[in-house]
Structures are given as structure tokens and as C-alpha cells.
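Hi,

I'm pasting everything inline rather than attaching a file, because the server keeps stripping attachments. The sequence lines come first, and each chain or strand is labelled.
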Amino acid sequence: MLKFTNKGIYCVPGKFYIDPWKPVDYAVITHGHADHARWGMKHYLCHHFTVPILKSRIAETIDVRGIGYNETITKNGVKISLHPAGHIIGSAQIRLEHKGKVVVISGDYKVQDDGLSTPIEIVKCHEFITESTFGLPIYNWKSILQINAELQQWVLKNQSDGKTSVLVGYSLGKAQRIMKALEGIGTLHVHYSIGKLNEAYEKAGVQLPEYNVVDFREDVKYLDKGIVIVPPALVDSNVLRKIPNKADAICSGWMQVRGARRWRSADAGFAISDHADWNGLLDTIKATEAEKVYVTHGQTAVFAKYLNEIGIYAEELKTEFGEEEDIETLTS
Amino acid sequence: MRTFANLINALDSTNKTNQKLAAIERFLNEASESDKLWFLSLFSGKRPKRSVNTQLMKQWAIEQANIPEWLFRECYASVGDLSETISLILPEAETQIDHDLSEWMDLIISLKDKSDEEKKIFVLNAWQNLPYLERFIFNKLIGGSFRVGVSSKSLINAISRYYQLEPNEVSHAIMGEWKRDEVSFEKLVKGEYADTQLSKPYPFCLAYALEKEADDLGNLEDWQIEYKWDGIRGQFIKREGEVFIWSRGQELVTDQFPEIKKALLEFEGDFVLDGEILAVKNNQILNFSELQKRLNRKNISKKMLEEIPIAVFAYDLMEWKKIDIRQQPMTERRRILEDFLAKQPNAHFKISEIIKVLDWNALIEKRSQARTINSEGLMLKHKSSIYHTGRKKGDWWKWKIDPMTIDAVLIYAQKGSGRRSGYYTDYTFAVKDGDKLVTIAKAYSGLTDKEIQEVSRFVNKNAIEKFGPVRTVKPELVFEIAFEGIGFSSRHKSGVALRFPRIVRWRRDKTVQEIDDIEEIKKMIN
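And the predicted assembly:
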């Protein structure tokens, strides 16, 4: 049913693409991150919650249709339905059914319930397309409760040392999780790129803690001893240097490894990720009962090899997903 | 171990010197006497021998994590550190055991005489009951190689600030041999055991590389100029009939150089001398690769002693007749040194020749010919300079010959370790061999973090083979490689070996067609 082309994953009978990286006629989008939702498609189909994100990221004028989870539409005889992927708000696994065969394209997903995105739903299928960003057994996340407690302790310690806590996390998904983790500890100041995406959360009816949008063109001395959340792109910029007495923490799954923490030379690193960890990937794949698994972006070769060794037929799939993560390194 | 774990965590998570110093001071405040001594031992390179074999540890970790060995290797390639890889793949700790650092070290040392089975029970128990960071530290403690986020210099600075001492006194006080169960930490760092120890070396005086023009140094007459030799810098001590040879890395290497030891015993009087061990045959200084054959061997064969004879080129004298003369000017120390070696001539000790020229231009000429006698360049020492502790700008300069360079193409890449794990930082380069490519050198440093990220992306996209830690990449990126020396080598496929190869710059302007050819490169060998 699927063909893997240089434009992206193509559904042959349905005549549409899933998360294509080149302009096409009809694109079904798993979620709003830039490596999955690109510009230039004539028509977009995604979850309701993803609609405002696409409009804000690509253009207000795009032709986009939003549907709910578990709602089915039919295109050229292929049944399309979206199912929660637990990655970020509106993130969906895309289930395609044609002549009794079911294929699921997971996009990015995580198993932990972050309290902001709809928790992942396991969809049984014949073929499953999985990511493998953290597909090595060294990646095992702490529970959300535990990692949030660590994050809070770090901020409280900074407060008592008279320091400004600067937390670095991707503006869509991660930033909102950090906000939620630090709710009630102090005023949350966010970069405008995060503020913009917070609006998308609010439109979807998600209650976020109160926050203040920082205008870094102005004097930001008032941030002293406060809490500031910024996207990774700002890490090496002059903007951050304006913040007084700062201690910075990078929030990313890559921070699991000491070398990665030291490479960024931040004051702290927290392994908080919106991707599934090693066991999360394995448990999900097993639960889908898929006969064939395609492994995309991340540890593709290693992860596919391991799946084959434990008796799950798997193939590597070359895509252009995860490129954003290569560029910023820290967006996961 | 929590106090120690907190220290490691603090040292690890900042690159600001002040915060590191503060963390060490906090540790000195909180830790027990025995933990402090262990800390000093571990960080100044005085570690017990490894008591559990790494292969076994790896095997046990693979068993515990229930993964295939190849997957462990992949993890290791990503993490870049064995202790850390093990601590990450193991299942989460169940309960917690809390021993302090010295208790752990005693337990680890006592493993030495135990059977593998007993060792395994001990290690698995620790793994099951330590949280991630402490598990990592435990693995490091077993390994005996502990290098975490702090240089010995900042360690000494922190200790001296804490006890309000001079850093050079502290570094002198903790050098040499001391036994943990015979000293008190405070007395040790305050130098109370220093006098009784005959072996104690002085910190080496080091030179900065000369970056300005030589004639900016002013009057040529003010400088003592010598050749810079490429050998093993050492400190040669004779006190009360006992002799010691220390390497620059603060290791006692006396027994590696039996003929030098014998020569030291033949001298009369007490002294501490700074010099370079070189392979010298028929008055010619041999290439470093010859000397290298003799290093780190348990036994030096008679044949080797004959084939690679060595001698010390004496640079300086720090102690003479039991008196520390480091504060005397260079010329005075030199006068005593010359007098000493003239009165007691010894075939294994030669004085480092002073180069006399009329003007700076003549010196430039001398420098340019240094390579023909296997010298690395020149040393410029101010005649009034004292023998400094460590590196001090202004008095001593090393003026190395410009390196040779070639253009080569990247063909293999491997992920780095430590701070650079996760990125491809270790590169193998090739040059042309007719219409084929042949590997010429491996190089690690010389690129900025940004460039390393860019190369890593290229490797990710252009990897031809993917399994294992090494990636074969499309030959496309051209780099300029500099090196200090070149010689024929039967061990390398290309037939040549480069000394100290490193990346000078990324030649984005060049294509793979424009790289150098091996036959041309061979012509560089003199």
C-alpha cells in the first residue's frame, strides 16, 4: 500500500503522502514539528489541535482540514483515521486501511503521559512505521514525577543562590512541559516563540500555567532570580547573555549521556524527552502486533537489526525526518 | 558516597572555574579525612591497580541488561565511556547502599585477591543498589582511571585557597610518593612531609609557544637560545646517594632508563637537573620513533640497549648541593650546570648546546634548519629568568618550526568520547595513490564545535557502511593536515607515518581531485 519516494511516504491507492518533505498535492500530517509538517502542500489533513500550529508555522492561508482522534475519512478507497501518539499536542499516528490491510505511520511518539498531549493509543496493524530517535538501551527515562521533582529542586536551589534559572527546550511540546513542571514555583517568563505556540495549546483547551512573554529587545534585568524558558536556537545567541546571574539547564533526551551534557557546557542537563525511550519503543512495537516494522529516523540500522534478532521483521527506512534535530541537536 | 557524588556532579556540570573551586571547597569542608586523601590520590594520578578486568565487567553488564554484545558496542560508541555505558544500560537500582568513598575504595582494593566469582557478586550487588551517578562513579573507581572535569592545576588552586597556601608549595607538597595511611591530609598539603622525601621533584618550568615575531623580543643578547628536542622531558634527582627519574607526567620512570640511572649513581654530590632523554647514536640525535621503541616496556633487552643508546641533554639545574636555586637567574644556574658537567664528565649527560648567532635573521635561518638534526625548533629563555613553577608567559618561549602540511580527504569517521560523544570527531584521512585512495593519518582536533556538528551531519547523510562505531563516508570533504615529522613506516598501508597530525582547516575550496599524492608526500622525508 505504501511506496517510499524521494518526496516522502506515499499511499499508492489513496494517492496522498504522509509527512512529505517536498511539495505535493495532498499531505496527511502526524504533528506540528517542522521536520514533519513542511510548507508547500496544496492540501493538509491533520488533527484539529495541529491546525492552529500549522497555520502559525507555515501560513494562515494554507488549505488545512482538521479531524478528531478515531474519526475516519475515506480517500480513494483508503480509510484514514488519526490516533493519539502522545508526542506533543495534536500528535497522531495515522492508520490507513485498504482491502483489509492496516498500516500505521506513528510519526514521533512517547509512552509517558505528560499531562498535556492525549496519551498514546496502541493501534493493532499489519505494518508499523516507527521512529527510533532514542533506540538504544542507554535511553531509559525517569518517571515524569521524578524528573519534574528534579527540575523543581534545581530551580529552587537557584532561587536560594540568587540565580536566574534559564531552561532550554523546544518551543513546541517541551517548553509547555517545563512550564507545567514548574507551575507555582515562580513567575514563568517565556520567549515569544514559545508564547506563540502556547496560544495553540490554549485554543485546544489545554490549561497552561500563567506566563509572561519576554521582549528581549528591551532591558531584561527584571528577570533576575526568576525563571526563563527559551528555545534551543537561542543558546549561543547574545540574547541569553543579557539575562543577569543565569544558570542554564538543557532539557532534552540527549542529556541522558554525560558527554552530551558536557558538550553543551550548560550548568545542568535534564533528560526530558517527547520521544519514546528504549523500552517505550519496544513495548509499543510489540503491542501493535505488526508483522512488519519500518524503522525511520534515529538509530535506524541498530534498532532494525535488534528487532530482527528478537523475531520482529524490520527494515530500515530512509526519510528526512529528524533533520531538525540534527540541526539544533536539542529539539527532542 | 553522596558527598563525593555531589562533588563529581558539580565538577561535571559546569565549565566555570570559580564554581568548580567552590565545589571542591565544599567537599573539603564536608568530607572525612580519609575521603579527602582518596580524592587527592585519585585526582593526582595515584590510583590503585585495577582489581576487576574490564572485559568481565562488560560481560556482566551485558548479562544483566540482557542485550546482545553488538548492541552493547553500539551503546558504547554512542556514550564514549565504558563506565557510563554500563551504568546506563543496567536496570534501575532497587535499594541504596551508602558507603563513603574510602569504604568503597577499601572494598575495591580487597577484591584483588578474590576469585572472579566473588568479584562478580560484589560488583553486581553494587550495581543493583546504586543510583545512576554513584554507579558510574563506582565503575570509575574500579577502573582506577578517574579524570573528571578538573585539571590538577585547579585542584591545587582550590586546595591552596582553602588552606591559604601558595599553589606551588601545594603542588610540591603533594608530588612524589606518600601513603594514605601514614599522612594527614592537612599536614600533607601544608608540606610537612616534604623535606623527608628524597624523591620529591619540582614542578617543571614550561614555555609558551612564541606567537609574535622573534625580533619583538627585544635585545638578542638578553636571551639564552637552545634547540628544542623531541624526546622525553625528565627531572633527574640525586639526593643522599639515591637517584630518581621523573617524567613530565609525574611518573617515576627510573627503571626504564637503566643506563641513565647508573650514570646518576656515578655522579658526586646532590642535585636536581632538568633535561631531555634522547636516542643518540654516533653523536646524532635519532628520530623520536626510535626512542619510542624503548618506552613502556617491562624489560629492556640488552640488544635494545645497544641498538638504541640514550643520553640526557641537560637544560637546567634546580637544586644544587641541597639548595633550591630556582630563584637564581638563568645565567647563574647555567654557569653552575656547565661547571658541574665539566668537572664530572659523563657519556650519558650532555649539556644542551647554546646557540650563538649575530642577529635575529641568523636565528631564523638556524630554526629553519632544525629539522635536519631532528630538532623541533628553538627554545628562547630570558637570561634573568627564574625557574618558574608551571607555565608563565614572558620568560621562556618555544619557537617551533612551522609544521609540514598536506591536503587530504575524510574517508572514515568515528564518534568521539567524553564531551564529544555523540558527534563524529575522530577522523581518518586519505591521500591519492595513483587513481586510488590510501589512508595517511588519523586526527582528532582542530575543528570548532560548529564545524564538528557540520561534519557529523555530513557523515550521517553520507555514511556508506553503518554498523559498528566507524562510518565509511563518501570521499568529499578536504582538510589541510599539519604534522611535525614524517618517516617511512612498514606498519602503515601508505608506507609513511606522520608525527602529531592535526587538522589545520577545512578546505571547503578544494575538491577530492585536488588532494596530495602519496608519492609526492614521500619526497618530504629527509
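Residues 324-332 of chain A have pLDDT under 50 and may be disordered.

If the labels don't parse on your end, tell me and I'll reformat.
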